[in-house]
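Ticket reopened. Same input as before:
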Amino acid sequence: SVGRGGACTTSAPSLHITFSLSLSLSLSLSLSLSLSLSLSLAFCSQDIRNTVGNIPMEWYKDYPHIGYDLDGKKIFKPIRNKDELDEFLDKMENPDYWRTIHDKMTGTDVCLSDEQVDLVHRLQQGKFGDVNFNEYEPAIDFFSNEVMIHPVTNRPADKRSFIPSLIEKEKVGKLVHAIKMGWIKPRRPKETAPQYYDLWAKEDPNAILGRHKMHIPAPKMRLPGHEESYNPPPEYLLTDEERQVWEQQDPDERKLSFLPQKYLSLRAVPAFSRFIQERFERCLDLYLCPRQRKMRVNVNPEDLIPKLPRPRDLQPFPTLQSLVYHGHSSLIRSISISPSGQWLVSGSDDCTVRFWEVCTTRCLKTMEVGGPVKSVAWNPAPSISLVAVSYGENVILVNPGLGDRLICSATDQLISSYEEPEEVKDQQVQWAVPEGKAQEQGQRLILTHPKAVKQVSWHGRGDYLACVMPDDGSSLQVVIHQVSRRRTQNPFHRNKGAVQCVSFHPSRPYFLVATQRYVRVYNLIKQELTKKLMANCKWISSMAVHPGGDNVICGSYDCRLAWFDLDLSTKPYKVLRHHKKALRGVAYHKHYPLFASGSDDGTVIVCHGMVYNDLLQNPLIVPVKVLKGHIITHDLGVLDVAFHPTQPWVFSSGADGTVRLFT
Amino acid sequence: MSQLQARFFTDNKKYVIDDVPFSIPAVSEITDLSNVINKLLEGKNGDHKHVEFDFLVQGQFLRSSLATHLETENISTEEVVEIEYVEKYTAPQPEECIMHDDWISSVEADSEWILTGSYDKTARIWSLEGKAVATVAGHTDVVKGVAWVKRDGLSSLLLTASLDQTVLLWEWSSERNKLRARHCCRGHAGSVDTISVDPTRSKFCSGSWDKMLKIWSAVPTEEEEEEEEESNRPRKKQKTEQLGPTRTPLMTLSGHTEAVSSVLWMDTEELCSASWDHTIRLWDAETGSQKNMLTGSKVFNCISYSPLCHRLATGSTDRHVRLWDPRSKDGSLVLLSLTSHTGWVTAVRWSPSHEQQLISGSLDNLVKLWDTRSCKAPLYDLAAHEDKVLCADWTDCGLILSGGADNKLYTYRYSACLSDAGA
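Engineering reply: fixed in the latest deploy. New output:
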């Protein structure tokens, strides 16, 4: 029982302690002053209220009183004579001990009523002290978002709610300024298109999967066919001839690597004699077969060709054969157009020179000379009407009597007005005035050279005439005649190879001499060699100078046409190999950016050759048209080409005895 | 599409049929359509004789089957196709072949006489039947152009232009068949290729290789006062005197940068010239100023003007005959290209009576008769020449003449329709 009693004594004070704790807690939380008032009111019949306030009561420990009542009289401590034992007995015997609490303020013991205990219990459980108070009453939403007819408050709207806010305005202004200055960027519109991630975009070809993709499976063996059968159908068996053919063939060329054979039964099939060889070849195939795809660079061959304008955009140029000038009975070596473009002169191997009207192909004049005509040249000066014709060793100057009568008579007068100088120099060339019929025909002067004259070429002013007498062993190959003074000069005293053709420079005092492999440009005033152009070909046949004077084209017997830019280099700027056979004649147009070449293959090739004033820009050379028409006779096709002086037309003379006009 | 709806109409009162649409096979050609029309006409009046018709769809001659024509012309086959029919133009009937000694460079004919210029340095006068009447010899070089100036009664005036840089004015009396050179017009510095007499017959214009146009008076003046000094003149001058007194131009029009190939008077005050410099220029004949310029892309060989349709036709070296509107102010305007020749076109001439027809002669030996409503194919090819055609003319009385390098002058009688020929 003692043990039980002991257990009880331990439990009772603990309850008391909890009470005091809970009370002090409730007081300290200042739950209510009213609670303590009601407690004190409930506990005491008379109001003995201590007025010391909320102070530690230890301060009155040594005094006989513990405070003052409302009248200011001392409240004396009740006489405490209870000792521990009394306390214990009280605890054991008093059934109301557990509800008795000690009031520190008055020093008395108060016994709590049932209502007060119940109140303490409710407070301990965190409930409201009032039993009747329902904390979960349905809420009434007085200040709802709904606009009511009769609002709870009838306050008018604030002024700020309808006046623009200056602060906001300032903030917006700052933002706008920042956007304007580019300090902040407005939000980018969201990209609506869904973005996908290309899983294989950056795949490493050396990765395992990549290697797998490049893999090539090993070659498979062909499945056996009927011919491999031990009993093939008879059409698979080779006949004797086929067998012979098979035996004679190279092992690589054979369609079958074995001879199909027929056996009566499977038992009769012998051991496979080629087994080891076949296995070895199979192993070799597997060993040598490519195991990886080769990465080849795929270049479109079209992309490697330089971009040239389309010929259609380079109009005008001659495209069609328009007129054919029939009349000569033998090959026509040379043609020349009058400066006005109205007349054409042609010199042929049938020993005649013919004058044609360009627009009607009418032969207006035929002049017989004493040999095959090698070269004709119309005087380029518009005020002189003279044609130089070379045949054999002679060069005759002809006044054709075409064109303006005044110019013709002035030319005649110019030639006849010559007076013999007093001291006659011994010249290598004889100047003679023809008589009789030749004079009537229009021949005005005959120049007899020591050697056969191959080419004649006028100077642009029309007074000087250069003649070429090709001869490899002599220094007298080129002579320059001055017609008005009937003088002849030999400008070169040293032989530098057989001269093919010569030409005067159109604007500067230069003289171009083409030998077999080189073109030499001489300065006639300084009497020195200015330039030596290397044509890179075996034998130059013809030469033409661009009317601008900075470009030269050379045709050669080894099918090439070399374009030289005199400012650029002594080597060809461009070499065109469009002809299949030797080139015989080349020509530039006077105004249009055109040049043409005639060849033994019977064609004339017209090219667009644009020369720019800008020195930095290279000439643009585009072949535009192949003109066919001449019939190849004795392996010769076109012998000479010449452009019309004003129209984009080209004339060509051929071995078939015709001159053709392409427009 | 096997059938399509078509309505036929015509301007010719004689051949009017009912204005109702017919359903005709799409593959039908001209002959089929012609038969249809003839059937309808027979049904209408019993005494109808068979007539060949030609058909136009939206102003273009039908030359293939109807379906392909509509397809190429982009005409809808859903709707009723309006087809105009006209009596088929009959082929020009060859009449004469007049032989010359040399190439014929130029020809001009009127209602009685034909004047031709030739490369044998003479011009000749022929009757329409091909009889040689007179030879005009006086030039020292090829005669390039001829023109009648005036024919009043028995005496007439004619002009010849030549490569020797002169134009000669001749007087010819057809009764006595006597020729007299009245004036020698000197001034050109190149061959005179073309001459043209103005509508009042008092002036003429010449175009030359020297890029100039010159206007001269075509009225012969009396020459008594010239003769008194004849004795003390040099011989050469006397020789020229036989060709009449020298005449100088009234006016020189310069502007062309290349040779003038053809010149004509559009009316009394307006000149038109075509040149090798790829331009056609219109000139004011009174002031000598250039009024307008039409630029082509090729050399012009010849030009012709039709007062009926106010169009210029040119022949150039690129084988096309082009039609121009000379009144257009905005530069060059090619209305139409007639393409069928294979050589340079050297002669064009509008019909004097029909506003849509013209002839062209070319170096491909052909003379073609064109209708501007059919620009792809000519109405007729006149393939009589064996060499280049150099000149052509079309007289008011319906005679087509063409001369060429085969030394022959062909004449054709042409009337638009058979019924007209009968009338």
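Helices of chain B lie at 30-44, 66-73, 224-227, 235-241, 418-422. Chain B touches chain A at residues 103, 105, 119, 142, 164-165, 189-191, 209-210, 258-259, 276, 297, 299, 301, 317-318, 343-344, 363, 388, 390, 405 (CB under 8 Å). Please confirm and we'll close it.
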